[in-house]
Amino acid sequence: MDLIGGMLGGFAVALQPVNLFAALVGALVGTATGVLPGLGVLGAMAILMPITIHFSPVTGLIMLSGIYYGAMYGGSTTAILLKIPGESGSIVTTIDGYEFARKGRAGAALMICAVGSFIAGTISILGLSLFTPLLASAALRFSSPEFCMLALLGALTLVRITGRDPIKNMLMLLIGAALATVGVDAVTGDARFAFGSESLGLGFDLVPITLGLYGLSELFQVLQSNRGFPRAETVRLRDMIPTRPEWRRAWPAIVRGSGIGFFMGLLPGPGSLTSTFASYGVERAISQEHRHEFGKGAIEGFAGPEAANNAVATSALVPVLALGIPFTPNVALMLGALIVQGIQPGPLLLAQHPEVIWGLLASMYIGNIALLALNLPLVGIWVRLLRVPQYALIGGIFVISFIGVYTMRSSYWDLFVLLGSGVLGFVLRRLEFDMAPLVLGLVMGPIFEKAFRESLFLSGGELTIFVTRPISAVLVALCIAALLVPSLLSLMNRRRAARAGASSVVTIV
Amino acid sequence: MEGHPTITKGHVRIASGILTTIGAIYAYRAFHLSLGDPPGTGVGITPIAIGVLWVAFGLYVTLRAPNIQVRDGEVGSWPGREMTRRLLLAIGLCLGFIVVLPFLGMVVTSGLFLVLIGRLAGAPWGKSLLASIVLPMVFWLIFVKLLQVSLPEGSLFEFVFRS
Known about the structure:
The structure holds two protein chains of two kinds.
Chain A: H1 3-14, H2 17-35, H3 40-52, H4 57-82, H5 93-139, H6 144-161, H7 166-181, E1 183-184, E2 191-192, H8 198-201, H9 206-225, H10 244-266, H11 271-286, H12 300-315, H13 317-322, H14 329-340, H15 349-352, H16 354-375, H17 379-385, H18 390-409, H19 412-430, H20 436-459, H21 465-468, H22 470-508
Helix pairs in contact in A: 1-16, 2-3, 2-4, 2-16, 3-4, 3-9, 3-14, 3-18, 4-5, 4-12, 4-14, 4-16, 5-10, 5-12, 5-16, 6-7, 6-20, 6-22, 7-20, 9-18, 9-19, 10-11, 10-12, 11-12, 14-20, 18-19
Chain B: H1 9-30, H2 45-63, H3 81-120, H4 125-146, H5 155-162
C-alpha cells in the first residue's frame, strides 16, 4: 500500500465517530494529567489502559496515543506558570519558560509552546508516516538474532542513559525481566516460579505493576504529604498573542527542535528528556544576539525544547510500530496494549493490520489539530484544574485504578500486585532506584527471551549465530559500545581533568 | 516542623541486600529449570542468565565503596512520623478495599473507600460522603452500562438477595 493510499485509508478509520471521540478524549485526558504535577504520562496511560481494551485495537491505541501526546502538550503549562514540570520532558521549559512568564508574558509563552507543539507534532507525524513503512520493510530482513540484539540494545541504552546510576538501573532492568519469566512458558507449557499457585502461573501483568510503580506510589506520596496542588493565576486569552519579534525568534527554534526531537525519538533511550536538553544546548550555542538571555527568559530556550519534546512523543512510535520493539516505557505500554488486544507488533503489523497503523497516524493529525483548537481556549480551565480539591481527585484515581486493573483479567490477585508495586515503587524511588528500567525489563524480557531461544534453536545451540549474521553482528557491536563507551568517555574526562589539575598545580608552583 | 529521618547509604545497602537475596533465591530456582535441547532453547536459560546477573549487580550495589562525594543527608529522607501514619493508613485502606471487594462488591466498597480516603486527604465529612455516593454511581454507569464490563457485585449481597 502506498503512502497516500495508506493515509486515505487511515483517515477513513480515524474519522469514524468512535475513533474521533477516542482521539479527543485521549488528548484532553492527557493534557489534564500533563497539567497536574505528579501523576505523569506513564501513570495516566497505565490508569486508562485497562479501559482501552474494551474498545477495538485501533480505537484503544488512538486513545492511548492521545493521552501520550496530550500529556506532552499539557506538561508545559505548569512548567511555564508554576516552574513545575508536569512531566520529565518539560523540565527544560521551567528554566526560560518560567522566567519569560515572570516578565508578564505567560500567555504568549503558552501560545508559543502550543503552536510549537502543533508544528513539531505535524512535522513528526509526517516523518512517522514516511519512516514507519520504510523501516518495517527493511525489518522484514530481520530474523530472531537481530530482534534479540535490538531488544538488548534498547534496554542497555536506557540503562546507561537514564538517571545517575547505571548499575542500579541494570539491577532494576533485571528485576523487571525476572518478573516477566514468572508463569507458564508459552512454548513448552512448563510453569516457572509459580510455586503451584494458579495466580502466579498466569504471570505478572504489565498494567498492575506499571500502575503501581508510577500511579499508586505517586498517590501515596501526595497523600502522605497532603500538600495539595500549587495554585496558578488565570491567563486571559487576549494576553496570549505573541508580538511579531517574539514570533520571529520562536519559529526557527521550533523547526530546529522538531528535527532534533524527531531523530532522537528514533534512537533507543529516554528521548524526551535528552532531546529537550539537546535542543536547549543547540539554541544556546547558535544564538549570538540573545545568548545572554538564556536562563533569564530566552524565547528560544523554551520554544525549541518544547517542540523537541512533542516531536519525540510521535517519532518514538516508529520503532514500536515498525519493529515491535519499544525504546521507552511509554511506548512499551502501547506495545502491551496491542499485545493484550491479540495483535503481535513487528514488521508484519503494517501488512497484517494496516488499519491499525494508518488509522493511528491519521488520528494523530486530527488529535494534533484538536489539541491546538481546544487547548488555547481551554487554558483557563487547565489552570483551574489545579484548584480542584485534592481529595476529589485522589479518591477517584484510586478507585479507577482498582477497577481498571480488576477488569483486565477479573483477578483479585492483580489488585494485590498493584498495591505491592505501589509500596515497592514508593520505597525504591526514595532510595533513588529508577523505575523505568524495571518496566522496560518487564516488556523487553519476553521479546528478548523469545528471540534468544529461537536463535539458539536455529543455530543448534551455537551462540556464534549472533556474530556471523552481518546485521546482528553490527547490533552486537552497538550493544558493546552502549555498555563501554559512556564508561570510557567518563574515564577519559576524569584523566583529562586530573591532568589539567596537575598542570595548574605545576604552574602555580 | 516535623523531622524527616535521613536516608543513609546504609539504608540503600539494606534495600539492595534484600533485592540481592531475592535474586539469589530466583537464581537457585532457575538452575532447576530445563536448559532444553539444543542447549539454550529450554525454559531455564534466560532465568539462569537473569538470576546470575541479578545477584552480581545486586552484590555490587550492596558492597561497592561508598561514594565520598555524596553525604548521607543528600540521598533523601524518609517520611516523618505523621507522614508515615498517613501513608500506612492509605496502604491499609487500599488493602481493606481489596479484601472487602469480593464480599461487598465494587459499588459499596468504592463508597466506603472514598469516604475514608477523602477524610484522610483532608475533606470535610459532608464532601466525603457526597463523593462516596456520586463517584461510585458515575463509575458504575461508565464501566457497567457504557463499557459493559462485569464488576464484582459482592457475595454478601448475592447471598442476601438469593435467600
